[in-house]
Structure formats: C-alpha cells, structure tokens
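Reopening this one. Same input as before:
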Amino acid sequence: MTTTLNIAEQLAAITGPQFVQQHEDIITVSPANTQQVSEILRYANENGLTVTPTGGNTKQSWGNPVPTNIRLELTRLNRVLEHPWQDLTCTVQSGCTWQHLQQALAKHGQFVALDPLWPERATVGGILATNDSGAIRHRYGSLRDLVIGMTLVLADGTIARTGGKVVKNVAGYDLSKLLTGSFGTLAVITEATFRLHPLPQHAQTFTVSAPQAAQLAPLMATIRASHLLTQALQLRGDVNGFYLDIQLNAHPEAKQSEILQKMTEAAGLKLESVSDDMWLARERVFDDPEAHILKVTTYPSEVAAVAGEVANLGGQSVAQALGIMYTSFPNVLNDLSHLAGNIYARTKVGSVSVIRTTVSRVPDLSPPWDKREPISVMRAVKHQFDPNRTLNPGRFLGGI
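Same output, byte for byte:
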C-alpha cells in the first residue's frame, strides 16, 4: 500500500526534499525541469495516483473540482528560454508569469498579442490550459493562433514536442491546438513557443454609453464591418447601463478617430476618449467570490441581445464583440439551471459553461452529454492520452 509518507519520499528523491510539502493527504511537489516532471508523472501513473498541475492558482476554481494526490507546482519553470526577436518568436517555460514574459519581450518592442486575466500572477501554462484571452483577440486572433510549438509530458512520463520554433511550420499533427484549453487533462505543458507582434504604438481607447445593450448593437456591427484598425472591441454592462469600449491602433495622420466619431454620431450616440482602465473590466466580473460565473459564446450578431438578457436576469457581463462573454450573477440567484437556460436560448446555438459557482452540484445546462458525438470523441482522446486517468480526472466538461 502506497502511503502519503511513501509518496513524499519518492517525490523527494526526484526533486529534493526541500521541494516537497505535505498537507493532509495531498503532496505538493515543485520540479525544476521537464525531466523531473516526466519522472513524477511516470511514478504517479504507475502507482494509480492523480496529479493536478498548478501555476499561479488564478483559475484553479474553473471547471469541476477534482480530488488529487499530487499537486504539481510548476512555478520553478519560470524562464524565458529563447527570444530570437528577428524571427518574431519566443520560447518560454510554463511556470513563467505572463507579466514577466511580456516585460522581457518589450525590451525589443514585441509582445505576445494576448491579454489574459491577472497577468501579474497567471502563468503561461495555466493560460494555455484554460485558453484564456481578452478583447485584443479581435485584432490578433485566438491563443491557438499564437502558439506554434510546445514541449509536453504525457501521463506516463513520455516527453513529446509538437510544432516548432518558426512561424511557418506545418509538420505533423497540431497538438498545440489540442492541448490549449484542455484544463490539464491530457498532458502537462512545460514549454511553449509563441509567434510575436510589434507592440502597439498609437493605441487610443474610446467609450460609447447607452441605457440598453441593443442601442449599441448597430454601432458595434458598423465598426466590425469597417476598415478601422480596431484592436479591441468590448461590450460591458448590467441593468444600470451599457458601454461599448473601442481601441484603435492607427497613426494619427490616418485620422481614424475622426472616422469613428462620425460613425458614432450617425448612430445618435456620443464618443468619449477615456483611459485604458476599462480593459480590466473582465477581471472585475470575478470580484465577488460567491458569484456564479458563466462563460457564454454566441454569434457576434447576438452579443448585444445576450448581454441584455443577462442584465434582465440580474447579472453583469463583459463581452468581446466576436461573441465570447463572461457573466456574473449574485449568489442569491441560486437557480443556476434557470439562469443558464435563459441565456442559452438567446445565444442561438452558442454555448454556456459554468466557470465558477458555489452550488454543490453543477446542473446539466443542455441536452445529455453522453448523447453528443463531440463528448464521445473527447472521451476517446482522453483515454488515448491518459488511459489511467492520472491527470486532472473529471475537471473538464462531461467528467473528462
């Protein structure tokens, strides 16, 4: 029988005893490199132990809570390994905080074009595992578009590398896209290679307000269809009113702010130049630790309608104009099925996911998962990567 003390002793032999801590029945271990991660996973997999990878612990409450034997703390893997700035790429370890990475890249006027939550604490690995992205996705695309390679460790300890270190690389299966958003259920990411972009030089932020989200929908559609160099487009609000935040990144001589001004006036609204603080609005959705947090996806054309429904139900929302929305509802509104069902009906074949809740059992929010073909495929992928269910079993959708 493998006892907690025996587990701690085996892990200490891999990393050194100073990097192993025991708290009740959970062992926390901090490996120094990919090889140590491999040895830890191999030991856990062979002994029927479950492993939860962790970084900055900013999103450990996302997804289903799972029991674990070993917490694999990756914060010692915290270096920017390569930055060939002429090639517009970089390779970084997964325990590096997003803020540290961006500060290193900024020395050459570059950045990974992503604005995740809590960048001062969130790590590269955690951001990849949860597929976190903010409003500048409007200009630069999703996280899956930005990651071009990974080093990962499978549940049995196998070290694998996918993608490459150059932007144009199409060899083999694109496992980087599969691992992004997998919530640590398929493999442990230890390194990632990103494509980079030049830092914005002429960013300007504006806001347009209206009592109802529907009043901002035509302007939002006009901006999306225009030739404006829009870097970010965000709709936020609640029952007290709504705001459309716009960030342009164009040289002043292009006079794009004047074009935006005319668009706004044509819609019967008023454009205001403001600071960049409103781009932190998505973080404020999570301020109430007792609130229900839902992630909603919908068509871009339905963003305002869904945001209006959220407000009618007593919640607040922050949405990317592309159709990704984070919503918060006070805990007093404890009928989660009712809330999610109403929102789902307005998405017009979108999705509703429970990111965080205080209720003991998360309800099924749509038709039975077992009858949905995508879930069957996802379970097959989980079994192929992790047949012994070593990594975060049950954290993902459908108990995966």
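So the earlier flakiness isn't reproducible anymore. For the record, Residues 34-46 form the longest helix (13 residues).
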